[in-house]
Design brief:
With about 575 residues, the protein is α+β, with helices and mostly antiparallel strands. It has three domains: about 140 residues; about 290 residues, Rossmann fold (3-Layer(aba) Sandwich); about 100 residues, no CATH class. About 25% of the residues lie in helices and about 25% in strands. It has twelve helices and 28 strands. The strands form eight sheets. An eight-stranded mixed sheet has the order 13-14-18-15-21-22-27-28, with helices on both faces. Helix 5 crosses helix 9 and helix 9 crosses helix 10. The termini are far apart.
Length: about 575
């Protein structure tokens, strides 16, 4: 009888909720063709920003629900019910009754007919760096204040009347140029034109020294809108000081402008190494960059960058064009990328400086061991289950768990299509599944790890393991080239993998690795090895720090007869 009563109560509750319908539609004015994508229902308790800009991993996040749509016709209504997955509350049925600022957004998908025979629907980057709330062509509704209550019988109808406009590409200047090429390798893989780009900072005197050829400094990181950290004018005196909570600083925007201007003065001043510095654009249907490696799901980005884009840049802008005269540096995603590119293409690059790299040893995939642990979300015992932390500050205070971070991603996109951090690791590192999408490394709802996928990850992308395994073959080409830096209070626990990697590197023999691993005391994410400055300053000095560092180190690693002088005017 009690079980029957519970079932009746559940049906009654669901029925009550379903009486208030939330319907979303668009008209032929926005698109005359049917659309595919991820439809998001966004709710906020405040109107400080549009709800689409208030979904985050921290405690101030607002609410989102997601619904996959295919062949969605103009004027056809899509309905949100208690079944759609949400974050941080999982079901609309659990949403407290009250007043909300409500908005809907369609993150549009494109159909790809890939070389491997799979047909997949994914959100192609459109110049915004895979930001669902900023992607040109996405449809959205204007925010409206509504009363949400499952007991009411009214119909809420949201119309996607707005379209996010195209993004203007940056213009060339005296020092900064831009390049975009169609990649033959990636176009063949994806079955449609695919492009790679770069923002190029030319050295002082490039135009007045036409006989000089220059080394290439490759900065890897997230999708750059333009070349960052370079400003030819002093800070804006009318700029209103902002406040950045992470560093507890007021006026950080002015500090950033001053640092950028200081770099310009160094770059153009006497004694600074004359190199070509580049920032690469390689956004793709899964993320704002590709991780600069070949992948079953993303295609041959490693080869495309190394053998198509970089030689083209060197050809157009008088690079030396040899592996000894190329080096890489970057932080976070960029930190992983530079180490990976150095390991997978050991003769094509002459040094990598990897700051706060994404997990480079999967025995510490942030806070859990991908090979031994059973669950990504919880440490489980016979009687106790403890949630694994995902983000902390320098005091160790946790603001998000791994489960919460992944629930946000699952709301933004199924089948590894959220465009967020955990999903891109999975897209890059996993084999292709039977449906054409990446195989899950762990169940997105339960956190249960798939050990067979973990084994694939180890053999193909565990950089620490691969260096150890392949050292007899690549050691001579890597000695002296590996530099790793990480704060010991990295916000994402990335220092854990660095500890394992350091132990492995120090044990290598014939030859010894002869590189560098260093840690910043209480330093958070993006610490780059500078012990003389606080992290909020050192994180702004990647270019000037690593370019000058490499220019000295290359004297020991350049081949006989290499030109080490003409570019030092």
């Amino acid at each position: 009888m009690r079980k029957l009563f519970c079932c009746i109560l559940l049906l009654y509750t669901t029925a009550c909720f379903s009486q208030q319908a939330i319907l979303v539609s668009f008209s032929s004015k926005q698109s005359a063709q049917p659309l595919d994508g991820r439809l998001l229902l966004l709710l906020s308790k405040n109107n400080g920003q549009e709800p689409r800009f208030q979904i985050s991993d921290d405690a101030i996040t607002q609410q989102a629900f997601g619904l996959d749509v295919e062949n969605w016709q103009p004027a056809e209504s899509k309905r949100f019910t208690a079944k759609e997955w949400g974050y941080p509350i999982q079901s609309l049925q659990q949403l407290p009754s009250g007043d909300y600022y409500v908005q809907a957004l369609l993150h549009r998908y494109e159909t790809f007919h890939r070389k491997d025979g799979h047909v997949v629907k994914l959100p192609m980057d459109r110049g915004e760096g895979q930001q669902w709330n900023l992607a040109p062509g996405n449809l959205y509704s204007k925010p409206v204040k509504l009363h949400i209550d499952g007991r009411l019988k009214n119909i809420i109808h949201l119309d996607l009347t707005e379209v996010i406009p195209a993004i203007k590409e940056p213009a060339d200047t005296k020092y900064i140029k831009h390049i975009k090429i169609q990649s033959k390798l990636l176009t063949e893989f994806w079955g449609r034109p695919m492009y790679l780009g770069a923002h190029i900072l030319l050295p002082e005197g490039w135009d007045t020294h036409p006989e000089v050829r220059y080394p290439l400094a490759i900065f890897h990181g997230h999708f750059p809108g333009d070349f960052g950290g370079f400003r030819t004018t002093p800070p804006d005196t009318a700029l209103q000081p902002d406040y950045i909570a992470r560093f507890n600083l007021k006026g950080y925007n002015k500090i950033v402008q001053q640092e950028n201007y200081n770099f310009y003065k160094q770059w153009t001043g006497p004694g600074f190494p004359r190199v070509i510095a580049i920032e690469i654009q390689h956004a793709n249907p899964y993320y704002d960059d590709s991780y600069a490696v070949n992948s079953e799901n993303l295609g041959p980005y490693g080869d495309a960058i190394t053998y198509e884009l970089i030689p083209e840049i060197e050809k157009r802008f008088r690079g030396i064009g040899q592996g000894w005269a190329r080096f890489m540096y970057g932080g976070s995603t960029g930190g992983w990328e530079v180490l990976a590119a150095q390991v997978f293409y050991p003769g094509e690059y002459n040094g990598c400086y990897a700051a706060c790299p994404d997990p480079i040893d999967f025995r510490a995939y942030t806070v859990f061991n991908l090979y031994k642990d059973k669950n990504a979300y919880f440490e489980e015992g016979d009687f106790k289950k403890t949630a694994r932390p995902g983000h902390r500050n320098y005091l160790g205070q946790v603001s998000a768990t791994i489960q919460q971070m992944n629930y946000r991603e699952l709301t933004l996109g199924t089948k590894t299509r959220s465009g967020q951090q955990w999903d891109i690791w999975e897209a890059v590192f996993s084999p292709v599944g039977a449906d054409g999408y990446p195989k899950r490394i762990f169940d997105k709802q339960t956190g249960v790890i798939d050990s067979t996928v973990a084994t694939y990850w180890k053999e193909h992308y565990d950089l620490s393991w691969i260096m150890k395994r392949d050292w007899p073959k690549i050691g001579q080409q890597l000695t002296g080239k590996v530099h790793i830096y990480c704060g010991d209070m990295d916000n994402y626990y990335l220092n854990n993998a660095v500890y394992f990697t350091e132990e492995m590197l120090k044990a290598l023999q014939d030859p010894a690795y002869n590189g560098e691993v260093d840690y910043g005391d209480r330093a958070e994410h993006c610490w780059n090895g500078d012990h003389t400055q606080p992290n909020y300053i050192s994180r702004l000095r990647y270019h000037q720090m690593f370019i000058t560092k490499w220019a000295e180190e290359v004297k020991k690693r350049a081949p006989a007869g290499a030109d080490l002088n003409s570019w030092r005017y």
